[in-house]
From TrEMBL:
Cross-referenced SMART domains: PKD
The protein's name: PKD domain-containing protein
Biological processes, Gene Ontology terms: carbohydrate metabolic process
Residues annotated as transmembrane: none
Signal peptide positions (record): 1-18
Keywords: Signal
Species of origin: Lentzea guizhouensis
Record InterPro entries: Ig-like_fold, PKD/Chitinase_dom, PKD_dom, PKD_dom_sf
Top-level taxon of the source organism: Bacteria
Gene3D superfamilies per record: Immunoglobulins
Domain PKD: 313-366
Length: 492
């Protein structure tokens, strides 16, 4: 009687109750026979069985329907829910009830959470696949489901590499769900053994350098340029990543066939990327040295800049123009010291990793200017009001120069300029040229009691004196007394 009362409470007269779909349970899954297969089904009343597995990406199941298919041949299958009235979780499994294993790989091929993204997976003949379609927040909806075989991309295998007939050539990112990885396929550039890839082949009609790069940045794809005749003997020449726009260059020989491997993932969040194979731009090398004259005693530095090297080391040989050279290296700078004054042409010859060459020159002028103060004569003593001669003597042994000598005084404080002379000084091994200054001592000098003089010799800019250590001299202080006030004082 209690059971009957409960039943009456549930089945209220006059109210219609829809039954769950016929394939609501794993044990009553709809069997997919021949392909292609499609079905329209209302799954609104779908329920969840206690042993239903988690849906795609671990989502909980609110209601599910099941389909099953046993593959009759090896090949790619594609399952779609496009046309459904809402997004549904679709998950693929193998195995038996209680021991179902989600079809899973790094590319998430075994499931989808949106009707716009189909599931594409490689099927093995004789294997039974189970498809659970579950609601997203609600038990279900108006389902449109289709399953069919699909052909792989035409250049999936190395043997079917698509010919590149002219440069520049663009290779758009394929649908990687339709690509696979062959057993011996290299992963030298992607670092991801087993990642899907497609192949291209290029046979240059002339020896040339090419660059492999992506036109737009993407985190997923990579590309490799190989030489060889089979998967077993491929040798990588260049690798390009979707992270970089610069690309990589390689030298190719006319008449030889080279192979390009474009590798990626089926990550649905990966942005598409286009690969480009084009002829490399000419290598450009610029050498830079000092623009001003440099003295003989100085070690001169030179620097290099390379353009269109495509992030690869460039080897450069150096000729310094004086009969000396530097061996080839990838260093971008050199230092050299010349043995004699002169004008030298420095020549560099650079070679990129892929064989392109470039050269450049720069002229360096080595001219040693050397003037020096050899004598600084100041009076030992003076009185306020006295005008005395102060002489600065300069020596010059190399070239005709026109130096400027500046005279400063100090009263134990800051230096104050009190004279400035510019005189032409010829080169002479023994002759000295004097710069005469006249200075009138002041009462302030006498009040302090002493005054110090400093002489500084300078060559006109941008001429640089080779040995500036002899261009500045400070004299012994001059004693300064007050001015004489009487004849008697003058005799003292």
């Amino acid at each position: 009687m209690v059971a009957a009362a409960v039943l009456v409470g549930v089945l209220t007269p006059g109210v219609a109750h829809a039954a769950p779909p016929s394939n609501d349970d794993f044990g009553s899954a709809t069997v997919v026979g021949s392909l292609p297969y499609s079905v329209a089904q209302d799954t609104t009343e779908a329920t969840r069985a206690a042993d239903d597995p988690a849906a795609c990406l671990g989502h909980s199941v609110t209601g599910s329907v099941w389909f099953t298919y046993t593959a009759t041949e090896n090949g790619l299958l594609r399952l779609k829910t496009e046309g459904s009235d809402r997004d549904l979780y679709v998950t693929t499994y193998t195995g038996e009830r209680g021991d179902l294993k989600q079809l899973w790989n790094p590319r998430w091929d075994g499931c989808t959470t949106t009707r716009t993204v189909p599931i594409t997976f490689p099927a093995t003949a004789g294997t039974t696949y189970h498809f659970m379609v579950s609601g997203n927040g609600t038990p279900g909806g108006a389902l449109q489901l289709a399953l069919d075989r699909i052909a792989p991309v035409a250049n999936d295998d190395f043997a079917d590499a698509q010919p590149v007939t002219a440069l520049p050539a663009t290779m758009s990112q394929p649908d990687y769900t339709l690509a696979s990885a062959e057993t011996d396929e290299p992963a030298a550039c992607s670092g991801n053994q087993g990642a899907p890839s497609v192949w291209y082949a290029y046979t240059p009609t002339r020896t040339q350098s090419v660059v492999l790069r992506f036109d737009n940045s993407s985190s997923g794809p990579s590309a490799g340029l190989y030489e060889g005749t089979s998967l077993a003997d491929l040798h990588v020449l260049a690798c390009a990543s979707g992270y970089s726009y610069n690309g990589k260059a390689a030298g190719l020989t006319a008449g030889r066939t080279y192979f390009i491997q474009l590798t990626g993932t089926n990550d649905r969040w990966q942005s598409p990327a286009t690969l480009r194979l084009s002829e490399a731009l000419a290598l450009q090398t610029s050498v830079h040295g000092p623009s001003e004259e440099r003295p003989l005693y100085e070690t001169i530095g030179f620097s290099l800049q390379h353009y269109n090297s495509y992030d690869a080391p460039v080897t450069t040989s150096w000729d310094f123009g004086d009969g000396t050279t530097a061996p080839p290296s990838t260093e971008t700078g050199q230092q050299h010291r010349y043995a004699a004054d002169g004008e030298y042409t420095v020549t560099v010859t650079s070679t990129s990793a892929d064989g392109r060459t470039s050269s450049d020159t720069t002229v360096v002028k080595v001219k040693t200017h050397d003037v020096g103060i050899t004598r600084f004569a100041v009076p030992a003593s003076a009185r306020a009001g006295d005008q005395k001669t102060i002489t600065v003597q300069l020596a010059n042994t190399r070239y005709l120069e026109k130096p400027t000598v500046t005279l400063y005084r100090s009263d134990n404080g800051s230096w104050e300029q009190v004279g400035r002379l510019t005189i032409e000084v010829p080169a002479h091994p023994t002759r000295k040229v004097g710069f005469p200054f006249a200075y009138t001592f002041t009462p302030e000098d006498a009040a302090i009691g002493k005054v110090t003089f400093r002489a500084v010799a300078e060559l006109p800019w941008p001429t640089q004196d080779a040995r500036e250590q002899d261009n500045e001299v400070i004299a012994i202080a001059t004693t300064v007394r007050p001015a004489a006030t009487s004849a008697a004082a003058l005799t003292n």
